[in-house]
Amino acid sequence: MSALLRPRMSDWTVVVPVLAVVLLLVTWNRELPGLLVAVVAAFLAGAVLAAVHHAEVVAHKVGEPYGSLVLAVAVTVIEVALIVTLMISGGDKTQALARDTVFAAVMITCNGILGLSLLLGALRRRVAVFNPEGTGGALATVATLATLSLVVPTFTTSKTGPEFSPAQLAFAAVASLALYGLFVMVQTGRHRDYFLSITSDGSVADSDGDGHADPPSTRTAVISLVLLVVALVAVVGDAKTVSPTIEAGVAAANLPQSFVGVVIALLVLLPETLAAARAARRDRVQISLNLALGSAMASIGLTIPAIAVASIWLDGPLLLGLGGTQLTLLALTVVTGVLTVVPGRATVLQGGVHLVLLAAFVFLAASP
């Protein structure tokens, strides 16, 4: 870890995010040839790796659960900006973009990141151990937010179609912010110990996530925090830059338009996925689960209020309600998640089940 704590201007973790942002400014809102798209994609991948590096430095400085919160909120804030930008400029084809992206984020985090974390943790220790109190509370919050924002609009009758009336949308936005704020208060205050890593005997592990290296200096942590934001801006911006190519590829493959949101969500969530995988390999499964469920919560709790405000200027309906297949997958994810979380211990089986649910989501998104 000591090498992580001494960023130099010549380090690739400094150079790549800056160059990725410069490339973003040069290519923004332009049609790109195939070779330049490949270059943007390469810098996108580099920015993802740099974001994970700087997130680890910040997390090592502030300790858990603050470190997980930093990455989850940073990614989600920029993701929200991307969704709003695309909806304002995209016309009718983006009416369901918020729903598709948020649902994709929930499925990727609650099945992909969570399943991968449990699988890696169980492969390392035979049984992945985590705190059921904190993880269970986080899952309950995710389930409530997802139901209020994505399920209820399917069944309301104030407006035709899977959408809220203005009053209902305002209530969902306020409720989402309130629940997310309450969770953050609990996670970082009264019950902070529920979200710290624990060992196989049930004792709390060191809160900085690393039992060997000293925390970085404040100056190093601040530099990494700035570079983390720069890298995340590059990730989301470059993802938008290559999105026309993605859309063209999706159309050429005869896939539904909603699959574009799945691909972009996968790209945007790469930093959290890699950070969670690294934590799980270091026997810090709780940190991985904090990232997974915290990202799902932030995705809903910040996106819905932002979309509610943006809807004042958006033309056309805002489709939020899920369809039958999506409702089934969400219900199965919540039930499976509860059964996984309650014991506080998981094997490779639970990890595999969640990864199969992610595979089912991706397959059915491509072939509804």
TrEMBL record:
Taxonomic superkingdom: Bacteria
Annotated membrane topology: Multi-pass membrane protein
Gene Ontology MF term list: potassium:proton antiporter activity; sodium:proton antiporter activity
Subcellular location: Membrane
Database matches in Pfam families: Na_Ca_ex
Keywords, in A-Z order: Membrane, Transmembrane, Transmembrane helix
InterPro entries membership: Alkaline_pH_Ca-Antiporter, NaCa_Exmemb
Any one Gene Ontology cellular component term annotated for this protein: plasma membrane
Record flagged with keyword Transmembrane: yes
Transmembrane segments: 12-28, 34-54, 66-90, 102-123, 135-155, 167-186, 221-239, 259-277, 289-313, 319-341, 348-366
Keyword Transmembrane helix belongs to the record: yes
Span of domain Sodium/calcium exchanger membrane region: 35-188, 224-364
Protein name, as recorded: Ca2+:H+ antiporter
Organism: Micromonospora matsumotoense
